[in-house]
Amino acid sequence: MGVIPGPGVASIIGFAFSSGRRVALASVAGMAVGNALAMTVSLAGAGAILGASAVAFTVLKWMGAAYLIAIGAIAILRSSAAAVDTAGRRPVSPRAAFLTNVAVGTFHPKTILFFIAFAAQFIRADQPYVPQAAILVATFTLIAAATDTLYALTASTASGLIRHPAVRLWSQRAGGGAVMAAGVAVAAMRR
Predict the structure, then answer these.
(1) Hey, is 85 helix, strand or coil?
(2) Average pLDDT in the 14-43 region?
(3) Cα gap 112→110, rounded to integer Å
(4) In which band, very low, low, confident or very high, does the pLDDT at 28 lie, cut at 50, 70 and 90?
(5) How far is CA 47 from CA 60, 93, 127, in A?
(6) pTM above the 0.90 mark?
């Protein structure tokens, strides 16, 4: 799951292109915290509730979709101003990128359901549950953070190659469009 791009990777790449390596790495840290929170909550029972309750799944799905679409739309709207005024624009702060990706990682319903399906294969009923769950959370979070870091470093390096304002404009719009598309995909998914 950590290698396959999704809303989190789209967000990380968007931050790398728009605000550079430092902000992209802060967004990776936020995604790691969000993934750890989602997996912890999932292993504590929320995943089972989401799996059993169509209403809970639908509410979380629509909240996540609306959030991603709004973030993508904001990126697209800001892209025009950034292309006109690249010297005077204020990049996203590392704190804002971190908090955004904590939310993206925490509230993605498919991720929560994935953790339930994933964890079941590695939990032994004859062993204490909490230590096993802690090892799963730590292992997944570290693997996902490592792959997300590679995406962040690659995208931030590539963003340095994109200096022309027109290229920057369209790359920011494409990044915003990718996040919006992820939001639409979340809205369209079925349980």
Answers:
(1) coil
(2) 90
(3) 5
(4) very high
(5) 11, 32, 21
(6) no
Rounded distance between C-alpha atoms, residue 57 and residue 63, angstroms: 10
Q: Which residues contact 110 (CB under 8 A, 6 or more apart)?
A: 186, 189
How far apart, in whole angstroms, are the C-alpha atoms of residue 182 and residue 167? 22
What digits encode the pLDDT tens for the residues 127-183? 888 888 899 899 999 999 999 999 999 988 887 776 667 776 776 777 777 767 777
Residues 16, 152 contacting (CB under 8 angstroms): yes
Ramachandran assignment for 53, one of left (phi > 0), alpha (psi -120 to 50 degrees), beta (any other): beta
Which are the contacts of 15, defined by CB distance < 8 A and separation ≥ 6? 23, 24, 26, 27, 92, 97, 101, 152
User: Is residue 151 helix, strand or coil?
Assistant: helix
Three-state secondary structure call for residue 137: helix
Q: Measuring CA to CA, which residue among 24, 35, 36 is closest to residue 151? A: 24
Short-list 164, 153, 147, CA closest to 22: 153
Tokens 């990718």, residue located = 178
Spatial distance between the Cα atoms of 182 and 64, rounded to a whole number of angstroms: 10
